[in-house]
Design goal:
alpha+beta, elongated, four-stranded mixed beta sheet, 4 helices, about 230 residues, single chain
């Protein structure tokens, strides 16, 4: 019996996500992929929420999603692997919630349209500040010789935006001007005592999981289960 399609998996999860007590609180399904790996199917579900995920919470979500999929008749007796993961460091920022959750993070933004000096298109490296979706504006903290400065860009002018890996702690002045990190997300200037979804090292990763599902210090975390 064939494995459910991507759209069907999203439908199954969405139908249960609003139920009281499901998945340790509200979260967003950012992406779903369904693929084959030999005789087994692989269902990978990317989830996120404003407060991020501690490891036990992500594992609980994985168990509950597993129960939903196990109850679906589309799988039949076909074996499959379920991997529930959070977005990786190279996540594109395409929705207002992505910008809100990325506050304080280093980002590369490609802008369209004509710039003040007559050029068409511009690439800006900065740090995500306040996002105001109602006004269609995003603040970026930009480095300058006189110190960090705020630059406001129109969301409509953003062609692409990707969070960048940082190999050293950010400037406290830059982070303060950005408004700090979103509450509950990984703060590089005040790291948590326990690992979170954004504070995971290769040694913590499941050796059977997707090698792209966990990398050092600023990455996604995953929870994997197998079904016969």
């Amino acid at each position: 019996m064939p494995v459910p399609s991507r759209d069907r998996v999203i439908e199954l999860i969405s139908a249960h996500a609003a139920s009281p007590g499901f998945a340790e609180g509200e979260f967003d399904v950012e992406d779903v992929t369904v693929s084959r790996a030999g005789s087994r199917s692989v269902v990978k579900i990317v989830v996120d929420r404003d407060a991020g995920f501690e490891l036990d919470v992500l594992a609980a979500i994985s168990r509950q999603i597993s129960e939903v999929l196990d109850a679906a008749t589309e799988f039949g007796d076909s074996p499959y692997t379920l991997e529930v993961t959070t977005p990786g460091i190279d996540r594109p920022l395409t929705e207002p919630r992505h910008w809100r959750r990325a506050r304080g993070r280093a980002v590369t933004v490609t802008l369209g349209g004509e710039t003040v000096d007559g050029r068409v298109g511009e690439t800006v490296d900065g740090r995500v500040g306040e996002a105001r979706p109602d006004a269609g504006e995003i603040d970026l903290v930009i480095k300058s010789r006189s110190g960090p400065q705020l630059r406001t860009v129109r969301a409509a002018d953003v062609v692409s935006a990707v969070v960048r890996v940082e190999f050293s702690p950010p400037s406290p002045a830059e982070l303060e001007l950005a408004g700090g990190v979103t509450p509950g997300r990984y703060d590089p200037l005040d790291p948590p005592d326990e690992p979170t979804d954004l504070d995971v090292h290769d040694d913590d990763a499941d050796p059977d999981a997707d090698p792209d599902a966990a990398s050092a210090t600023d990455t996604d975390q995953s929870s994997e289960s197998r079904h016969q």
